Every structure is written in C-alpha cells, then in structure tokens.
Amino acid sequence: MTYVNFPVAAIGIGAALFLNVTIVSGAQKLERTDLNQTDQSRVTAIVKKTVDFSKAEQFEAMSAGAATSTASPNSNAFSHSLENLSFKGQRDFKLGNGIFKKVWTSSPSSTLASDGLGPLFNARSCQRCHLKDGRGHPPKNNMDRATSMFLRLSVPPKTAEEKSKIASGELALIQEPTYGGQFQDFAVSGLPSEGKMVIDYEEIEVTLDDGDVLSLRKPTYSVSDLGYGPMSKDVLFSPRVSPQMIGLGLLEAIHPADIRNSADPLDKDKDGISGKVSEIFDTATGEKQLGLFGWKASAPTVALQSSGAFAGDIGISNAAAPRHWGDCTENQKACLEMPNGVNKRLGDTEAPKTVMDLVSFYSRNLAVPERRNVNDPQVLRGKEIFYEAGCADCHRPKFVTSRDAEQEEHQFQLIWPYTDMLLHDLGEGLSDNRPVGSAEGAEWRTAPLWGTGLTQTVNGHTFFLHDGRARNRMEAIFWHGGEATAARDTVASLPKKDRDALVGFLKSL
Amino acid sequence: MHPLLKNLTLSCLTAAGLTLVNTQITMAEKVDASSVLSNYANIAEAIFEDSLTSAKALDTAIDGLIQNPNSESLQIARSAWVAARAPYQQSEVYRFGNAIVDDWEGRVNAWPLDEGLIDYVDSSYGRESDGNRLYTQNVIANPILNVNGRQVDATKITPTLLSETLHEAEEVEANVATGYHAIEFLLWGQDLNGTGAGAGNRPASDFDTNNCTGGNCDRRAQYLKAASNLLISDLEEMVGNWTVKGEARTFLMEKPKTNLSVILTGMGSLSYGELAGERMKLGLLLNDPEEEHDCFSDNTHNSHYYDQMGIQNVYTGRYNRIDGSVISGPSVSDLVKEKDKTIDTELANKLSKTVDAMTAMKTRAETVEAYDQMIGEGNTKGNAIVQAAIDGLVDQTRSIERAVTVLGLKAIEIEGSTSLDNPKAVFQ
To answer: Which of B102, B276, B377 lies nearest to residue A91, judging by beta carbons?
Structure first.
C-alpha cells in the first residue's frame, strides 16, 4: 500500500522551511493564514501520522482536545456540551437543546411560537431523528413508521437552461416537479402525506481470502401510497439516515487550507485516491464556498445545514430557507392552501433568528467523547492495520483547528475526527446515482469516525453508512469500493485475528 | 457559616433554637480544601437522606391513596409529593461536576415526558407521533406491549419493568417511565389548562377499583406503587454514594484541591445553563406552558426556588434539614473570603438577591397565578417576575466565575492538562 503524506505532514518540521507557498507533488499548497511560524511547526509535527503503534500517541485519548467530553461512556455520551464551554455557552447550549427537543405543532395553534409544522414533514422535532444526538437507522420493516431516515429526490436536468445552471454550479440539482427535493412521509391533519418509502433488501455474499463468508444486504428503494399522483419516471432517490451530531463545530473550525491541500482530484500522486473538494455556489454572493456537512458535503456551515433540515424535514421556515410551506411544490396545491405558522410579532418566518441561532449553537457544541482503551494491545494492532491498509488516507486522523475559528472553544484544538472532509468515489455498490452539486452519485464525503465506537451504547445498533445498510463495521468496510478498493482488499486478505483487531480499534473511537 | 458564630458553643446555639451538626472548626483553624469538600459531601449525604425520608413518606401516602381512594387521600399524596421535591431539588447542584449523580439523575428526574406512554390522555395530546411509536402506548391499559420489536409481558407492573424495559424505550428520551415526574403525572394527570389557571385534575376514583374511572384502576395503582418503590431504591443507592466510604465522596476526597472546582462548576452550570437557560428562558422565549419543569402539578416555582437554595447551600456550606436541624461547616465561601473579601461578599449578596427574586416568583405562584401562566404570551407582569429570577441567576454566575479565578482553580485545570503523564492532557 502506498503511503500518502498529507500536505501539512509533508511540509516537514522546522520553521525554516516555511514559505508562503510550498510545493508538494507539483500542486500549489495553500498556507494556513491563522498560524505564526512557531505554531505552524508545532502543528505540522503533531498532525504527522504516527508510525509507532507500540503505545497510544500523546493526546490521543482526548479526541477533541480540551473540548472532549470526559463524562461516562453511557447512553448519554453524545449529549454533553463541549467540556471547555463557558457558563454562558452552556446556557445557549441548553436553550438550543430545548429547541432541538421541541415538538413543533401544526398551525394554527395556541402556542404561537411553536407552530408551523409541515404541512409536509418527516419529523416533528430534531431529536426525533437525531435520537440521543446520535445516528439514525433504517426502519425495522416496511410497517415501521418511526424512521430516522428519508429519501432525497431529484430529476436529471433536461432543458438547456437547467443543464447550464447545473454545469455552472448555480443549481445543485433539479427537484422532482411534484414532490420537491425530499420525500415527506407525514403531513398535518387534513392533508395526505407524500407516501411511504419502501426498502427491499437482497443478501449478497462476499467471500474473504481466508474463506470466511460475509453477507451484505443490498437495498433497493421505491415509494408507495403516493399522495400527489405519479412521480417523474426518471426520479432519482438518495436515501439518508440522520448522522450523529457530535463535534460539528470543530469540523467547521478546520482551516480550509488543510482541507483543500488534501484534495487531489486528478490523482496526480497516482496513489489511487483522488479526493475532491465540494464547492457550493452561494446564490447571494455568486461565490463558491467549501462544502462540509451532510453525506455529500452539500452544506458549507452547520447553520445552513440546520436551516435546510428545519425547512425540509420539519417544514419550519427560517431566514436561510424562507419556505413557510416547507417542501410543498406548486403542483401540491392542497399543501400550499394550508395555514402557516408565521407570527409577524415574532418575525417573518416560522422559526425566528433567535431560534435558529440557538439550535445552530447547540449543533456546533456537542462534545465528542473521550476514547476508551487507547493502550489496549488489540486496539493498537487495529490502529496499525487501519493506517497500513490505507483507511487513514481518507479517514484522516488529526487536524489542529484554526486559531481564527469564530468560537473560542473551537480554536487551536488537536482533534481526531478520522475524516479529510473531502468527497471520494466509493464505487458503484454505494452509488445512489444521483448527482448533487460537486458530488457524483458514487461520491460521498468521508464520514467522521470519532465517537462511532459508542453507537451501540448510545443508539442500541450498529447500522452504518448513509442509509444504514451496513449492520456492523465489517459490512460497512466491505461496501467500500472505488478509491477505497485497495484498502478494502487489504482487509479482505487479513487473518480473522487482525480483522477483529481492526474492529476493536474502531470500537475504541 | 458566619465567622462570628464559629466559636460559639453548641449549647448556646441550641438555646437559640438551632441544632448544629458537624461543627468542629474554630476560628483558629484555617479552612482547607479537604475540610470544605468533606462538608460538601456531608451536605450531599444529608440532602439525599432527606430526599429518601420524604420519598418514604410519599410512599406511605400512596399506600393510603390506593387503600382508600378519595379526594382527601389524594390530596395527602399530592402534598407528600410536593414536600418530597423540596429536599430533592436542593440536590440538583450536585449533578453538575459529579458524574455519578449526573449519570443517575435521569432515572429520578427526567422530563419532559410523553405521558401517553403511561396512561390515558386527552384527545388534544394527539394519537401518534412520527418519532415515538410508544407515544400513546398506555401501559396501564395494555398488559401486552411491543417494545423494540419484542413482545413484553406487562401483566404485572414492576419496578424492573419500568426501569429496564420502558424507561427511554426505543431510544426516545421522552419515554420517561420512572421518577418524580411519572409519579406526578399519576397523581395529577394532564394539565389541560394551557397558560390558563389550574393544574392537572385527575380524580381519586382513577385509583378506585370499585368505582373505577379512567379504566384499569388496579393497574394504575400498581404502576404508581412500582414507580414509588423504584424512587426509594434509587435514592437509597445515591445516599450510599455519599456515606463515609461511598464512591462519590471517595472520588472527591482523592484530589481535594482540584475537586474544589466541582463545587463551583456545579453552582455555575446549574445557575446559568440549566436553570436560567433550559428551564426558564426557553419557556419565556416560546411562551409555551409545556416548558415547565413540574407541569402536571404546577409546582415549578418550588422546583426552581429549591434549586437556588441548593446553590446557596453549597456556597455557604450550610443546609437546613427537613427535621429542622442544620448541617454547617467549612465552605467555599470561607476560602474565597480568605483570598478576597469583596468577591465573597459580592457572591453571597447576589445569591441572596436571586433567592429573593425566586421568593417573589414563589409567592406570586402561591397567591396570584401559576408559573405556566407567568410565562404566557403577553403576561407582562408574570414574564418580568420570571425574568428577574433569570437575571439574578446570570448575574450570580459572573461572580461564581470570579470566585473560580480568585481560588486559582482555572490555573489548576490548565496545569493538570499539560502534564505529560496525564491521559487527559490536551495539545495547546
């Protein structure tokens, strides 16, 4: 396996080497504008990937630096605020938590500040999908309506105008003309819901090099009980489970140079791994921003991701997404005739700015739990495999966050998120065949792995990947293809003892 | 304790109508971190003992209600519940900073709850929730349940059924099956008055197997008794954690100097984030009567008031027990005073000022209108009274921060975190 040096690591140690622009593999590297030379050399040294697996690295247990939660690793492990948060910060966090848990009601309602649900929606509150602030899961069967998962919808561009807007990035996708950008399986009283998501699974056997057989379940998505007539024949579905909420503010605080410098879209270093930045068109300024959040890195900030979720998932309008009727389209007249929850005294949208600010603050400040068993020999062996197989090439272990981060608690922390925040082609097996913005159907943003070791503890399951198809970590690994093929094949060639060690390492995250 | 009192004799104080426990220090002795933490732990032990004692009294009253359900026995049980909340709420300041208390707290004091899990509800509650399959499960009416895809035999409602199977079932935090608020719901029923006057109004006949209202009165009684038993055993466990060899106390005493910050962290986090923020400001922000802590009983004013008393207790190192005796000893206040008298006075005054604001809120709740009415939209006077208490909490937190600084506790944290042999060390 080729060893890739990440750019900051490749710059080398010692202040003398720092120039405005450093050239590695022929690509121009961006500089971290937030650091002085001393800082830069310390950062370079500390984020360098280790080659010593005999013991845990310094600071390794504290996955999010001083922001790490040292609370007990129990079912509340994802619900704590950053440990370094001020008392005032804790106040805003708790207020945000209250809104995160708040159950929105349909309009009109006696509680003016809490109405505006839908008319179409996937959930009545944030918490109902982000269960225990952790990971959602696919429905248990097609009768189970308590989902923390939904389908995104779009159609391929058809007109010349649509095609050019998609090409320029001005539009990320073309919505399904009747059902909009998202399939809502609930509606307020008196209105039909859009229908039901149907999943059919097919078991596929994978034989590992030592003869062990693994069964993967391959999902097929469709819809039934459509409430608003037929969908476009060429509709594209992208299933999404709700992701864990921890550490988002720290991911946002990663310096853009560290992300952009890792990108290698044309694979100039010929290591088989490209890595592409998600560029998002800002309709307000016409400029492109770095996409960071969501399974396809389609949102540049936690605040915008939250605004999108309020409007799309709950049907609550807000300044960034002023759609009082949520995801209703002009072809859903009955939906547009429903009352909305705008209360002029409180603002021009159903969720006023204060509410959005608090919920965004909350979402940025959920702590990542401290690692367990970092010095356990099996965990260390698993870590070695993780690095040697190449997993760590995309699931990048370390960053030091920007000194310029907006919030003090997020600044200059050594964090261990195990993501490079880039889009990678994971192959046809995982593709949803639905392009959105910079991301092709097979491209997904590297999922952060920090905290995932506690998924069972917090959420009572180990369903991983964007649609929860993997029932455990080994299945998740074997769904990887595309740029991750070599790493996956390395894992397939390992003896069981080493595969178990790899899983042991992942469970310690 | 007031310095002038420190060298008074025990008999003198008894004569003054007070019983003093654990007063070993005299003026001559310098207060150290260890003695402060020891007194802090003694107060915790006493508070949890008092919570336990009053939970047992509640249990007896519940027995009375079940044996002889009428409006009088129901009233006695409700009063016992309100009385039981007073010591318990004073323990909340221990939640923050003491992981062992925080981990346990959800079992006894979780809120808000989807009460349809437990019993019948009004049609305005709604029939289903997209996220909570158990939203209207009504355990009392349904002896066979389906939880997490498994059939559960709830023919007999036991403490184990509540704590192991139903509490937070299917990962939904609002599935609160245990603790004070589950008992509160069973004693009061839903408060259907919004921001209008009135609390929950469950009739005593809901527990009367001869003239049963609401159906399944035997199972409702069984549920209530099981929840009450569970509350007692949970409190017994917590008292145990604070005894001489208890885990919570032992942990604190291991590193007295560092752990002094636990006391102040608890005070600050409860004041600002939990109380001023989630429990009070949110309700004002949304004008939502559902945003109140003791929503079935309209006892929220007491719940907030005793939280503040708890904050003041741990600062002054003094707690008035339910039997009238007083626990008093070396306090953080003494330590701050040694370093900077002005900051001690400032913080002590602000704590009293908030107590006054909370008292005004409590008085209004007892004489004019309930807390959920005070937070109603357009209720200028009520809103202002709640806001004054919030302002007090925020203001006292600023002085708590000053106390942390003057005691050099920030420095301790930083010193500890850079040490190389410390697994909790972080890069800075």
So the answer is: B276
